[in-house]
Design a protein that fits this description.
Number of strands: 24
Shape: elongated
Order of helices and strands: HEEHEEEEEEEEEEEEEEEHEEEEEEE
Oligomer: single chain
Structural class: mainly beta
Strand content: 35-45%
């Protein structure tokens, strides 16, 4: 049965190549299992484009920057003349001591990224060997940069990514400080440099040990361990939302400011800071009013008939967290004071 299948494959290949000769097709790719055979334009001599036979040998090679690479040129049917090499479609001009011969090797010394690409060995205008060369570096040691929770219920970790000029795969592993030393892997990767731990994968008030591996074709590098309890020690909430301001109807220098807690915060207790300044203040001259856990505050005695700028941020009530970024800035123009005097800010 296997012999019959092989016979059918070569028969189909023969017929397809026959179609190319008749129709002047420009490219044929025939794939069988893990082997891929490539044919270039049939009018190769006229178009100066090489023709690959179905027996052309194809390889993929990865090399480290600074190394020496030897590319084998394997001729078929004992051909011994008109040997040449091409790199990315351009013919190579080689020194006399590096002229290739069938069965010999093309020597590339002290290679760098510019040597990457496709190399073709041609004998009599026919491709005998095709080599895809990739030049790069071993991955550098990655670093777990941080693990931050927005709400003490879920968290994200992220790490550094190195440009090694090769495809590099990063994996985050972790274990718990429970003495069992069971290794787990990131439950949900986000891109190539972060991992998300959802509600089902987050353990509250638990210390984790994280580390990252970076792997490419030239080797693997492992980060140092990063120890943290993300839901207790590394909580940074999102900024408050929907900051609005209203003038009090009986006094234009009194402003009531309202805001909402960050989204996706269920059980995390937050305390707030209201920052405000007038258009007459410097851009970095903000007055800070702590409001505790309440989400509104009444400002008294502001400058009349003046534009004011307001923003709010928050932080966890319990220690171990970080202050959020600021909300968007809200503007309001005050009116006249009821008694014509400027009151103290309260």
């Amino acid at each position: 049965m296997r012999q019959v299948c092989n016979t059918c494959f070569y028969l189909v290949t023969f017929l397809l190549n026959g179609c190319m000769l008749c129709q002047g097709a420009t490219l044929l790719r025939v794939q069988r299992g893990a082997d891929e055979l490539t044919s270039y334009p049939t009018d190769a001599l006229a178009s100066a484009t090489p023709t690959a036979s179905l027996s052309a040998s194809q390889h993929e090679l990865v090399a480290a920057v600074g190394s020496t690479v030897l590319l084998n040129c394997t001729a078929r049917d004992g051909l011994t003349a008109d040997v040449s090499w091409q790199h990315n479609g351009r013919e190579l001009t080689l020194p006399p001591d590096n002229q290739p011969a069938p069965g010999a090797q093309l020597r590339l010394e002290d290679v760098d990224v510019e040597h990457s690409g496709t190399y073709l060995c041609l004998v009599g205008g026919v491709v005998q060997t095709q080599v895809v060369l990739k030049v790069g570096r071993k991955p550098r040691q990655p670093e777990v940069q941080d693990c931050i929770s927005r709400n003490a219920d879920t968290f994200r970790c992220w790490w550094t990514v190195d440009d090694s000029d090769l495809d590099t795969h990063y994996r985050l592993f972790y274990t718990f400080n429970d003495g069992k030393r069971v290794r787990y892997e990131c439950p949900e990767y986000e891109g190539g440099n972060s991992c998300y731990f959802g509600y089902e994968d987050t353990y509250l008030f638990t210390h984790y040990q994280f580390w990252v591996t970076a792997t490419n074709a030239l080797g693997t590098a492992t980060s140092k361990s990063f120890f943290v309890d993300p839901t207790s020690d590394r909580v940074k909430p999102d900024p408050p939302r929907d900051v609005t301001a209203r003038l009090r109807h009986n006094d234009g220098t009194k402003v009531k400011v309202y805001w909402k807690s960050p989204a996706d915060v269920l059980y995390l207790s937050l305390q707030y800071e209201l920052h405000f300044r007038s258009e007459n203040d410097r851009e970095d001259e903000w007055t800070v009013q702590k409001t505790g856990e309440q989400t509104s505050f009444l400002l008294l005695g502001l400058e009349p008939n003046t534009r004011h700028f307001l923003r709010v941020r928050c932080e966890p009530v319990l220690s171990g967290g970080f202050k959020s970024e600021f909300s968007d800035v809200t503007e309001i123009v005050t009116g006249e004071s009821r008694d014509g005097q400027r009151h103290n800010r309260t």
